[in-house]
Amino acid sequence: MREPNRRRALVGAAGITVGGIAAARMLPEGMLLRDRRPLRSRVAIISASQYSEGIVDSLVAGIHLFKFDLRGKSVLLKPNLVEYIADVEVNTNPVLVGAAAEALLQLGAKRVVVGEGPGHQRDTYLVLVESGLDAQLRSQGIKFVDLNRDELVKVPTRANFTGLDHLWLPRTVLTSDVIVSMPKVKTHHWAGVTLGMKNMFGVVPGTKYGWPKNILHWKGIHRSILDICATVPIHFVIADGIVAMEGNGPLHGTHRLLGKIVLSDDPVAADFTCARLMGLHPERVWHLDSAAKFLGNGATDRMTLVAEQLPKTVAPFSVLPQFAYLRNQPQL
Amino acid sequence: MHLLIRAIREAIESRQRNTGGWSYAAHQDAIEPTCLAILSCRNQPGNYLEGAVDFIERAQNPDGGWAAFTGDDQQSCWTTALAVLSLLAVRPASKRLESGIRWLLRTHGREGDLLWQLKFRLVDRDVQFDPAKCGWSWIGGTTSWVIPTAFTLMALRRAKRRLSAGSDFTLRIRLGTAMLLDRMCPGGGWNAGNSVAFGVPYSPYIDATSIALLALRGHQHQSGVPQSLSWLSRRISGCSAPYSLAWGIVALTAYHNSDMREEVLALANQALVAMVVERIDSLDTPTLSISALALDALQGDNVFEIAA
């Protein structure tokens, strides 16, 4: 008699679990999310007028403000490496990527690797060489990992905005102690802006999801950004806003000399700050607004600007007409 | 040349895993590197080739498709097409072929559904394309893209001559061909799948253009195909990456009838040989394999050349 009871209990437990998961998936996405926001986030805005070797010192000083203990840690730098277009600043500048690697090593990191999985271009090495990043990393002895072709591990998603209950993710991403998102500050023709959180599309592997990772578009770009960033922790952001892009970003916009690097220990705070520097309303970007409810801080009273303050006035970035609502003032 | 091809094949063979498959860079069997390795070694019968083909047969899902790597359970069009091409090349009597081909025939990009066609025609018009011209997606539930469509067209065109072809073959090949021609960039060549978005023309990629041209062999008089060949001839000059360069060579050799192209190919050959010799140990298996296939093609043996 004991055995059937045990079996019944197991079947019942399994039923409750499956039913619970199914019910949980039907609830509004926000209801089940654990609030992971830190009490306070820190952001450093650093002025830099050009890509030069002097950036290393600025970054060391800037990261030092966060009292970030990097000793003995393995670090993955995730730049935005999309494709090479002559004379267009599409990618995170190689000099800044190299400077970030050098700064993190100076601050005690055991190992720094750079990893990216470009969204459209299958020949990652071609983009790496043509963008100048290959030469930069070789000169410093820094390893590059093609995240589109890394070993993949199935990981349950830690949010439910897309309905994807798992993502296949590169082992390099999952085994790094510290993940640093290094976006290029740009407008984006689908998402409004592409910053530290959107930059994480690059950790989703092409071998599984294709080039482009079209399933993320079908599931909704904003929703996909949230699921990815809830699942893959971004420990730090170093945003390239020295030469940014406005208009029809992320590829065909125009340069905007912003002259800023933004550092933060909270990707949401970093992205809100970048958007404010762009003269855009961050809370009008759906994924930023949603992320500020559970993943990080967007409100200015929950973040400390540890270096420079936001400028008093900003000429808003130009945007495509469908994103005019992001601007503080009408577009001429 | 023969020595280099042999060295490449030895390097590929040395990387074969106990399972019979190959991985990208880590310890996880994957279909693309295994299929390209099989194709590059197809003329060297031996235990390792048999083991590789056995691996491909074992990796097929019950419904006929192939996932991209071990552990994944969702089929991909591009890997299914590559598996079919590989079996056709080295084990044409395989019982797995028919179910693989049938899987490809019943799979299509999401814009092939009527409601989605309406959406793309009436509402979602930022990207210019004709949704009625539908090919194959990377994975299910998404739209058609150039590379999976081109690989699948090659597989179906090859298979059509070997299996009893029905009207669905003809229809899908015609639609897929039309899709590729529709998605061509304005000056020739192909990007990942879109030619114009938000009013801006996209730039072509070398590998996508090469694979699309291979799939379109026999259509060289279609509008845009000669421009695409010209673009590719220009673009591979000075190309610094062996993977793209090798695909470019494979495509151009399939369209041999121009003096200018012979000159380009001679230079491309030199560049590819230099790159492979310098980095044979660090290049990944797909790059090594496609390099071997490019060197084969230059000697008149082009595995991707489909009879027009």
Describe what this molecule looks like in 3D.
The complex is a heterodimer of chains A (about 325) and B (about 300). In chain A, strands 1, 2, 3, 4, 7, 8, 9, 10, 11 and 12 form a ten-stranded mixed beta sheet that branches. With about 325 residues, chain A is an alpha/beta fold. Chain A has eleven helices and twelve strands. Chain B contains 13 helices and six strands. In chain B, the strands form three sheets. Chain B has a two-stranded antiparallel sheet. The radius of gyration of chain B is 19 Å and the shape is globular. The interface of A and B includes residues 125, 152, 209, 212 and 252 of A.
Layout of SSEs?
The complex is a heterodimer of chains A (332) and B (308).
Chain A: H1 2-26, E1 41-47, H2 55-64, E2 74-79, H3 94-106, E3 111-116, H4 124-130, H5 133-140, E4 143-146, E5 152-156, E6 166-170, H6 171-175, E7 178-182, E8 184-188, E9 192-194, H7 206-209, H8 214-218, H9 221-231, E10 236-246, E11 254-264, H10 267-277, H11 286-291, E12 303-305
Parallel strand pairs in A: 1-12, 2-3, 2-7, 3-4, 7-10, 8-10
Antiparallel strand pairs in A: 1-11, 5-6, 8-9, 10-11
Chain B: H1 2-14, E1 22-23, E2 29-30, H2 31-40, H3 47-59, E3 66-67, E4 75-76, H4 77-90, H5 96-105, H6 114-122, H7 146-160, H8 167-182, E5 196-197, E6 200-201, H9 206-215, H10 225-236, H11 242-253, H12 259-279, H13 285-298
Antiparallel strand pairs in B: 1-2, 3-4, 5-6
Helix pairs in contact in B: 1-13, 2-3, 2-4, 2-13, 4-5, 4-7, 7-8, 7-9, 9-10, 9-11, 10-11, 11-12, 11-13, 12-13
Could you write a compact summary of the structure shown?
The complex is a heterodimer of chains A (332) and B (308). With 332 residues, chain A is an alpha/beta fold.
